[in-house]
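CHAIN AND CONFORMATION:
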Amino acid sequence: MTTIFGVSVQALSGQLLLGLINGSFYAMLSLGLAIIFGLLNVINFAHGALYMMGAFVAWILLNNFGLGYWWALLIAPIAVGLFGALLERLLLARLYKLDHLYGLLLTFGLALIIQGLFRQHYGSSGLPYVIPPELSGGQRLPFMFLPNYRAWVVVASLVICLSTWLLIEKTKLGAYLRAATENPTLVGAFGVNVPLLITLTYAFGVGLAALAGVLAAPIYSVNPAMGADIIIVVFAVVVIGGMGSILGSILTGFGLGLVEGLTKVFYPEASSVVIFVIMAIVLLAKPSGLFGRSA
């Protein structure tokens, strides 16, 4: 059996795959957070709850309406995005001229309310969500067994993240979004509906969280605490990458997932804190984050 630093290649490959899968969710969730903060200047602590809501929408569509996984990938982000648009118009829009702390406290309260409502109705135990038949099974590689669904999650996350980055950084719509955050009055003078643009941006950000929730449903059990379990780590990822940095969130999410996986192989006791240790080091060396711009 081939080993690397005393660890078998099979064990190392398995943990790297697990780290890459976790990194896929870190990247998608931190991407949504970075979009909302970078373009709206809102610290969206409700992001984890909306990720959980996306998973529950997929479960409800399957068990109550007979609509499977592929329909959930389409419907859940739209449904949660519409819910996010409603939150933005009714609540968040009133806080844009205030300190960031007000938005953080509001979204934190919303997260607790949403999580509590789902716990009250569905309980605290996890609900199973079956892998779609098209993605069941796996591939026997020379050094490991690769489940088809996990490979799909990694590929889908990469495509979604890179497509979102291209949309924001390389298209006319993305230019409007960036300009609206810098000078909304001037952009509005050109006939652009800035409030609608802001609402759609928030809806798109939380829609990404819901999409990540649908992808996570067959891997993790669907439960009300799943968002709370991951959101703190995702915030650390965003801080390390640089608040508001789209590309930084993507690269840091995948990179830290791999670091976490390697840590589980060589020093398992530190796997739950390694990301926070890296965050502390980065903040000491570069407070704006690895890819962030200094104020």
About this structure: The two ends are 52 Å apart (CA to CA). The CA atoms of residues 32 and 205 lie 4 Å apart.
